[in-house]
Amino acid sequence: MTALWTIDEICRATDGRAVGLDADAAINGISIDSRTISENDLFVAIKGDRFDGHDFVAKALEQGAGAALVSDAFADAHPDLSRLIVVDDALLGLERLGVAARQRMQGKVIAVTGSVGKTSTKEAIRITLQQFGKTHFSIKSFNNHWGVPLMLARMPADTEFAVFELGMSHADEIRPLVNMVSPHMAVITRIAPAHLENFKDLYGIADAKAEIFEGLLPGGHVFLGADHDYVAYLKGRAAGLGHENVTTYGFAEMADMHLSAPVLADGQIGCDFEFDAENGQLLVPQLGAHALPNAASAYLIGRALELDADALLAAIQHYVAPPGRGEIITLELEEGTATLVDESYNANPTSMLAALDTLSRNQHQGRTCVILGDMLELGAQAPDLHRSLAEPLKQLAPEQCYFVGPMMAHLFEDVRDDLVVEWLENRDTLLPKLANWLAPGDLVMVKGSNGIGLGALVQACREKWPPTKE
């Protein structure tokens, strides 16, 4: 197996010095978590909000790490330790290693951001491109100031396609990330009220997302989701930086790749599309219509890479929802099965409405239960934005609702006279309540911001009603 890096390559990339290491020794992986160290990994001792990785260097080395990237101060304080690469600052060292990985890679790089659908769109693109060549991609939501350089540093030199997710909660956060990634193509999925408490208005969010254009390589290609009110504004921001090659996609009539009304059948969502002289059908093994613009972005990127249209449409049919973002889970009850739609990873008003729309399209034999948690980081508008879900929820008319968190109390007050609903301060008592209610054929959707912890409820459901092993 070809080494990801050698010690000498890491030292040259990070301006580091090796202590007790062979310059030709191979490093096969990179980790910032001592609990996930594999043999011959490089452990990077970054300092986070809660932990300082330097406190776990000895443990990482004991567990088989080939080397540890550490700060000068730590090395000076631990002269007895060896197998170290010493730099001025471990996080800066990781950033330099990520930049070096990008510089040596000769394939095509795609960067994705947006208020909603970043991870799902990244997944659509990477699942599609994996059918055509060696593809590297951001895992989970590693999209911040340490996640992006970590994902870059893990990128093999012979990567053909790379897809990186760039996140932000404040202005000026995407700029340094995209400058490290240096993409050939940039995707903005949508502008929506996410992290609104940190911005004056949605134009501020659009400006922050538009920072992705600043690192786009000259001659690069911009792809914009068209189903929001800030498309023209983003086009203008791109043009102001010299990026005229812009393609839009979505259900909006003005989209360059226009999607027809979605149709749900046999557990798959589909639509027809028109793009220049091309037309065809997108078909995705998911329930939500919001998966179709994600798939459209993957198709457009593939065509920009001159990949075959029919092969792309076939590859897109492998695009399943990632955990926490629409994953469909079968719960094995004593006398049959129920279905859980896991949307527990994130929530804002736009994604909440999309999730409720998904339920309205779904045909199933039993009842519907909606479990909603607070939407976080919405600032002073949070109470009103939670209340804005009342009418769509009344129209859906689920047989049972559970609301979790202090902000959901506002929604509870607006629907309590029209729906069967219970408000809970936290998730602790939810599982037994759901167990008493649930019956074969029922459909349950769980959605809320990750900080509310509804992912733990989903995991508890998996453990209580696991799929039958054949």
From TrEMBL:
It comes from the Bacteria. GO terms for biological process: cell division; cell wall organization; peptidoglycan biosynthetic process; regulation of cell shape. Residues 27-74 form the Mur ligase N-terminal catalytic domain. ATP binds at G114, S115, V116, G117, K118, T119, S120. Its EC number is 6.3.2.10. Residues 325-449 form the Mur ligase C-terminal domain. It is found in: Cytoplasm. Keywords: ATP-binding, Cell cycle, Cell division, Cell shape, Cell wall biogenesis/degradation, Cytoplasm, Ligase, Nucleotide-binding, Peptidoglycan synthesis. Pathway: Cell wall biogenesis; peptidoglycan biosynthesis. It catalyses: D-alanyl-D-alanine + UDP-N-acetyl-alpha-D-muramoyl-L-alanyl-gamma-D-glutamyl-meso-2,6-diaminopimelate + ATP = UDP-N-acetyl-alpha-D-muramoyl-L-alanyl-gamma-D-glutamyl-meso-2,6-diaminopimeloyl-D-alanyl-D-alanine + ADP + phosphate + H(+). Its main location: cytoplasm. GO terms for cellular component: cytoplasm. One of its GO terms (molecular function) is UDP-N-acetylmuramoylalanyl-D-glutamyl-2,6-diaminopimelate-D-alanyl-D-alanine ligase activity. Residues 112-300 form the Mur ligase central domain. Coiled coil: none annotated. Involved in cell wall formation. Catalyzes the final step in the synthesis of UDP-N-acetylmuramoyl-pentapeptide, the precursor of murein. NCBIfam families: murF. Belongs to the MurCDEF family. MurF subfamily. HAMAP family: MurF (MF_02019). This is UDP-N-acetylmuramoyl-tripeptide--D-alanyl-D-alanine ligase. The lineage of its organism: Bacteria, Pseudomonadati, Pseudomonadota, Alphaproteobacteria, Hyphomicrobiales.
